[in-house]
Amino acid sequence: MRPLNDAIRDCLQLVTANLAESWPLDQCNGAYLATDLYAESPLPRWPQSAMDGYAVRYAEAQAGQTLQVGELIPAGHWPQRSLVKGEAARIFTGAPLPTGADAVVIQENCQTSADQQEVLIQQTAKLGEHIRKAGEELAVGDLVAQKGTKITPGVLGLCAAQGWDTLPVITQAKVSIIETGTELKSPGQALDGAEIYATNALTLAPLVKTSSAQLNSVFRAKDSVQTVVDTIQRALESDVQVILTTGGVSVGDFDPIHEALEVLGAQRHFWKVKMKPGKPFSVASIQSRAGAKCLLIGLPGNPVSCVVSYLLFVHPLLQKMAGVPEEQCGLRRINCILQHDLRKTHHRAELFRVRLNRMTQEDTGKSFYGCELTGGQSSAWISSIAQADGLLYMPDQPCQYTAGQQVEVSLLPWVELEAVKHYF
Fold this sequence. Notes:
By secondary structure, this protein is α/β, with parallel strands linked by helices. The chain has four domains: 2-18 and 171-328, MoaB/Mog-like domain (Molybdenum Cofactor Biosythetic Enzyme, Chain A); 20-43 and 136-170, Molybdopterin biosynthesis moea protein, domain 2 (Alpha-Beta Complex), CATH 3.90.105; 48-132, Molybdopterin biosynthesis moeA protein, domain 3 (Beta Complex), CATH 2.170.190.11; 333-411, Beta Barrel (Beta-clip), CATH 2.40.340. Helix content is 17%, strand content 32%. It is built from seven helices and 29 strands. It has helices spanning 4-13, 153-161, 200-210, 225-236, 257-264, 303-321, 383-386, and strands at residues 2-3, 20-24, 37-38, 48-49, 53-56, 66-73, 87-91, 103-106, 110-112, 118-121, 131-132, 143-145, 166-170, 174-180, 184-185, 196-197, 214-221, 242-246, 267-271, 273-276, 282-287, 293-299, 333-338, 342-344, 349-360, 367-373, 390-394, 399-401, 406-411. It is elongated, with a radius of gyration of 31 Å. It starts with a strand and ends in a 13-residue tail after the last strand. The relative contact order is 0.13. The mean pLDDT is 94.
């Protein structure tokens, strides 16, 4: 059996970031940049007012001074003339500054005459006050965002301000899921005899998107070698880059994945990982009819083993293909305090499902997270995942953690930590 960390590294080395595509700006959120982006225009593009008020020559705008009101300059309108001596221009937030103006007096510090022709300055202006200088946010050539940056709403807004309507992003991997098991029925169907409801594909489908990949298709195959072979070939027709199978990857009489891989002529990379849950995990590759390489990843059939194996191996692999820098791939981690003793005696790395509990330190009042097991840890108990916030790792040797010990928990991708408060 392959050690857990070796298997994770080996999986990541099987892929590189995909090629770049140009996507419409409004579809880029969550994708990763394929190149560095540099400003082509300054921000702001020209000197502009930061407030509603009056553009003035600051040396003339002394408290008690009355100035003539020249033109009115709303946002989106270019000044029609320069500011002359003894004059102020009525100006609004974001409007271009007229030539000759070097300060803005906010309207709260001014009193306008009844006919709007004069303005009394009530507070002395300061040089450059309430003016946004051209290029003070971004100068031409400044770095807007680095290659590998995840495109967020903030990044989208900054790119829109440059006038870009498309962005170069890394293509997300296309994924197919093949759920194996003659005993499986879809939720909502009537069960007959020893049939059970299928859960793995429904659990994995939203995770694929979370991993910055595209779910291309979902199939179900009975436990026969030929059916599995046929289904894999159907999936390959869509030019997918990754095929995930669930179940049928162990060594039982009704586990057809290994024989199906032989029939397909797949290249086996490894099988079995020194971990619990999820030992029967398989990675192979095959060429599609078009000659493109496709990874065939066999996930265990037990629901918990399936999800844990996906999170440890497939999640970072798909992220890397989508352009996430390798050092940023995988699950986020958080330090917690273990709330009870935890002991294991076997020689496999184990991933315990834990829930987080917000706790308060009595002497300081500071908040922290404690963690505890989500009850039974059977690989067949999907409730241990449904109730979990993260995975607690214990290495591949007998060991014991004690209550009160600080431990590191890998957060499940869908977990949002509770806010401490909603105000400042």
